[in-house]
């Protein structure tokens, strides 16, 4: 008996049909020139070359593995360089249950990252403690470090993690170069005991 076989009969798109992934920043264009502001160019470069640091402790980390796999492929967003060295990374992705004992470790990793740095809380546990309303679990990593984007779900699907990374990209692309030296940002860090 022959086994059922399915073929991919969809025609492959021509290269000319594939739309551009990166978008052009706002600016002024003329014959042979394009002018824009420096922070828009830097924002465009930063948002498309994010280096994530995965801090995975439990089940949400498994979803992150799927997100990095060939099917979802975070590399499409310029984020394939996952690093475990905080000094070279600019996006801290916290995935999983964080026990109170782990809180200082998360903060230490955050402190070792250079500015500009962003934080993504992936899943209910990292965002709020999730179902673990107990004496031993940190009720959200925003108790120890400032969080930029929260991804809901227990666990969130890879699509949701990708959506969170895209929200981070939006923030990165639009962030003013002066934000990190503003009084408001310094006050935010001081509220976490960070100088
Ligand atoms: S949010 Fe759910 S899936 Fe994610 S680490 Fe917590 S219990 Fe596991």
SSE blueprint:
Layout: E1 28-30, E2 33-35, H1 38-47, E3 52-56, H2 59-68, E4 91-95, H3 103-112, E5 118-122, H4 123-128, E6 149-151, H5 158-174, H6 183-191
Parallel strand pairs: 3-4, 4-5, 5-6
Antiparallel strand pairs: 1-2
Bound molecules: iron/sulfur cluster.
Give a written overview of the molecule:
The chain is an alpha/beta fold and 195 residues long. It has a domain of 131 residues: 3-Layer(aba) Sandwich (Rossmann fold), CATH 3.40.50. It contains 6 helices and 6 strands, in the order E-E-H-E-H-E-H-E-H-E-H-H. A 4-stranded parallel β-sheet has the order 3-4-5-6, with helices on both faces. It has a two-stranded antiparallel ribbon with strand order 1-2. Helix 1 runs antiparallel to helix 5 and helix 2 crosses helix 5. The longest helix is centred in the C-terminal third of the chain and has 17 residues. It is flat and about 65 Å long. It starts with 27 loop residues before the first strand and ends with a helix. 26% of the residues are buried. The structure holds iron/sulfur cluster (SF4). Iron/sulfur cluster (SF4) binds next to helix 2 and helix 4.
What's the level 1 CATH class of the domain at 50-156 and 168-191?
Answer: Alpha Beta
Give a count of the beta strands, DSSP E runs of length 2 or more.
Answer: 6
As a percent range, the share of strand residues is 5-15%
Q: What is the ordering of alpha helices and beta strands?
A: EEHEHEHEHEHH
Low-confidence stretches: none
Q: Any idea what the radius of gyration is?
A: 20 Å
CATH topology of the domain at 50-156 and 168-191: Rossmann fold
Shape: flat
CATH-scheme architecture of the domain at 50-156 and 168-191: 3-Layer(aba) Sandwich
């Amino acid at each position: 008996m022959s086994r059922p076989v399915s073929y991919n009969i969809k025609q492959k798109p021509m290269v000319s049909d594939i739309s551009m992934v990166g978008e052009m920043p706002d600016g002024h264009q003329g014959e042979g020139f394009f002018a824009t502001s420096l922070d828009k160019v830097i924002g465009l470069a930063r948002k498309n070359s994010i280096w994530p640091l995965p801090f995975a402790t439990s089940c949400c980390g498994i979803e992150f593995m799927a997100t990095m796999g060939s099917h979802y492929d975070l590399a499409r967003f310029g984020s394939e360089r996952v690093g475990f060295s905080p000094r070279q990374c600019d996006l801290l992705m916290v995935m999983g249950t964080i026990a109170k004992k782990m809180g200082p470790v998360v903060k230490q990793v955050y402190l070792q990252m250079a500015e500009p740095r962003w934080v993504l809380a992936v899943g209910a546990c990292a965002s709020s403690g999730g179902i673990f309303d107990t004496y031993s679990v940190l009720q959200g990593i925003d108790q120890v470090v400032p969080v930029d984007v929260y991804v809901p779900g227990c666990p969130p699907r890879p699509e949701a993690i990708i959506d969170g990374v895209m929200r981070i990209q939006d923030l990165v692309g639009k962030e003013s170069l002066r934000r990190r030296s503003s009084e408001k940002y310094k006050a935010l860090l001081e509220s976490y005991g960070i100088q």
